[in-house]
UniProtKB/TrEMBL annotation:
One of its GO terms (biological process) is D-galacturonate catabolic process. Coiled coil: none annotated. Catalyzes the isomerization of 5-dehydro-4-deoxy-D-glucuronate to 3-deoxy-D-glycero-2,5-hexodiulosonate. Its EC number is 5.3.1.17. This is 4-deoxy-L-threo-5-hexosulose-uronate ketol-isomerase. InterPro entries: KduI, KduI/IolB_isomerase, KduI_N, RmlC-like_jellyroll, RmlC_Cupin_sf. Zn(2+) binds at residues 198, 200, 205, 247.
């Protein structure tokens, strides 16, 4: 029990065209994020984004630095976004305790030294999903409850993509260096997300899928708009999306996903649209 991590490297789109299913999964899919009693982290060379999860049960878990960071503590040169997708829990930031209920978020600024995760009930532990990106300025730690999110209704039932987008850790709600996070909830009967598909060369993105019913699955689409690929995914799994790749999905049921971004542009509307009939 404790801390686990792995590294992922950036790939050229011309190389990705030659990947088989196993290689695609090895490069972009992140599994086993939520393991009881562990902090699991995956460090990507795409904008140095880290995707991770912490599931404290009977003991408090600490977010510690990992070797690729070459840092005394995890947030020495980074910022952190957290969304709780499990039971009630708390995050202690240098001794200040924040309670996070289901689907509540917390932004932690650069320079905080001790990050501790705890669950209120070991029978229903918190599942803390995390994204972290490099930071150069120090911004305050802020909790973002459901009532604090900017909510946008998108899609249409006839296109099977009726969804509620919750902007949580974005430039419209709080100050960050580059990290942006939000949550999109698919309505019952809707399965398609992020249509029309798009790319944004100025920032990468990671998707984390949850609330996927048992026995159901997500088909995540990636790749260049004219050279798409797909990955089948399960509950509480994530995928890295390179700057050159679309990021869209359809599920065999409705579901929820958390999107996180790192890069040079904080404008949510910064994207290059590709209409459905243009995809190949």
């Amino acid at each position: 029990m404790g801390l686990k991590y792995e590294e992922r490297y950036a790939t050229h789109p011309a190389d990705a065209k030659n990947y088989d299913t196993n290689r695609l999964r090895d490069e972009y899919l992140v599994q086993n994020i939520m393991e009881e009693g562990n902090v699991n982290l995956t460090y990507s060379q795409y904008d140095r984004l880290i995707v991770g999860g912490a599931v404290p049960v009977n003991e408090t878990l600490k977010l510690e630095s990992i070797d690729p960071l070459k840092a005394e503590y995890f947030l020495e040169r980074r910022e952190l976004g957290i969304v709780n997708v499990g039971g009630k829990g708390t995050v202690s930031v240098d001794g200040e305790v924040y309670e996070l209920d289901y689907k509540e978020a917390l932004y932690v600024g650069k320079g905080k030294k001790e990050i501790l995760f705890s669950s209120e009930n070991a029978e229903a532990p918190a599942h803390f999903y995390m994204n972290s990106a490099p930071a150069h300025e120090i911004f305050p730690t802020v909790k973002i409850g459901r009532e604090d999110a900017i909510i946008i209704e998108l899609g249409e039932p006839e296109n099977s993509n009726r969804r509620t987008l919750n902007k949580l850790i974005v430039s419209d709600t709080i100050k960050t260096n580059q990290l942006q996070m939000g949550m999109t909830e698919l309505h019952p009967g809707s399965v398609w997300n992020t249509m029309p598909a798009h790319t944004h060369s100025r920032r990468m993105e990671a998707y984390f899928y949850f609330e996927v019913p048992k026995g159901q699955a997500i088909c995540h689409f990636m790749g260049e708009p004219k050279e798409t690929r797909h990955l089948w995914m399960g509950n509480e799994e994530a995928v890295f999306s390179p700057t050159w790749s679309i990021h869209s999905a359809a599920g065999t049921s409705n579901y929820t996903f958390i999107w996180g971004m790192g890069g040079e542009n904080l404008d949510y509307g910064d994207m290059d649209i590709c209409q459905p009939d243009e995809l190949r």
